[in-house]
Amino acid sequence: MKNQRKKNPRLLGALGKNFPRTHALAAGAASFALALTLFVSTPEVEAKRTALPVSLAPAEAVSPAVAAAEEADAGIAVEDARSGLRVIEEKVRNGDTLSDLFQRAGVSSAEMYQLLASGQEAKQLAKLAPGEELTFQVDGDGNLQSLELHRDRLSRVEFSRDSGDEYNYALHQREADRHSAYRQGEIKSSLFVDGGEAGLSNNTIMELANIFGSDIDFALDIRKGDTFSVIFEEEFLDGEKIGDGPIKAVTFTNQGKTFNAVRYTDSNGDTSYYTPDGKSMRKAFIRTPVDFARISSHFNPRRLHPVFKTRRPHNGTDYAAPTGTPVYAAGDGKVVRAGYSKPNGNYVFIQHGDRYMTRYLHLSKRLVKRGQRVKQRQVIGKVGSTGYATGPHLHYEFLVNGRHRNPATIVRQLPKAKSIPSSEMARFQAQTQPLLAQLERFNQPALAQQSEHGESSGSTN
Question: Where does the record place the Opacity-associated protein A LysM-like domain (predicted)?
């Protein structure tokens, strides 16, 4: 051929001189045997894993990482021998729309619109989250016969086409097996770090902080040597753990003072946490509107302003946290102001009844509007550094009858939510006393071990 490269006689001569003919024949035979072995064994192993189409076209070099990523992202299509339908599985990726998933599955937009118009239940397909899975069943003409949405391992939504060309809706729910679990630990670094080392998930740690959020300021009050113990539910499906359920009973010792809480569902079906004698753990206001933030500036009427370098009252508490950290409403109320100003940046003011107001300044984003009603711990914005701010933080103010009060101390003086009524106390005790007794039994070995080592649960500075 014209494009065939010419052989290099010098190179061949050098090879012949340095590589005897007998050795070359032996090496060739060994290479042939090795190639024959690979040729015979490799396809057999691959065939057991998956049947791949044979391509006679030259293969392009693809890195293993790219190949693995493409295989993970690609939808899986197989044919159901019994029904004669093609089954395509697609996983929702970041930024995906329902139209993207139908296109990847090879199903027309007309089929998608017909499904979306089939009923109110189909509207939920417009709101998909990354990681969720869709299973399409398509006939030989490309018509969609059924679509399944797998929200998680416990929930599956099905839309199936009937003989009248209409879609029927069905929700399939599985119940996880629930078992009680116990964890205990001691604060050496932070609740988040030490809770994780004790075997608590991030969600359970956050729930623990929320339960005691009216009594303990987890940004200010935590000390080395504080202890905690928790009874919570673990969820299993087919023998495999799939997540954690709610906390059932919990103890937290902070600076030598012990707080106990137990979960209770009242006769109306409402669930909350209470002290062992039936008092609500929930106060009218939470202690901190940001989870696990660091206080960068305290309430100080004579503070030196970091920008203007003059003595100006600091009528709130600054919580340093990364930009985008959620900011919660401290209590139930109504948004009376929400906007932007040069000194405050993005801000939200919430009125709580006639006497109380809370203010949230320097937000990167506002998530509520003026006149909107909000609930305690509802996300109202995100931490930022807008306005006169030297870095990302939340400036939080608490006003009583129009006067600024120290947010770190005022909440302790405010009343809690309603306690268990006397008419329901017997039901409350019957439901919660076994949990508290179980928690106490679990705690005994840990307390005995601490006593043997002479450890104290009080605060250490």
Answer: 91-169
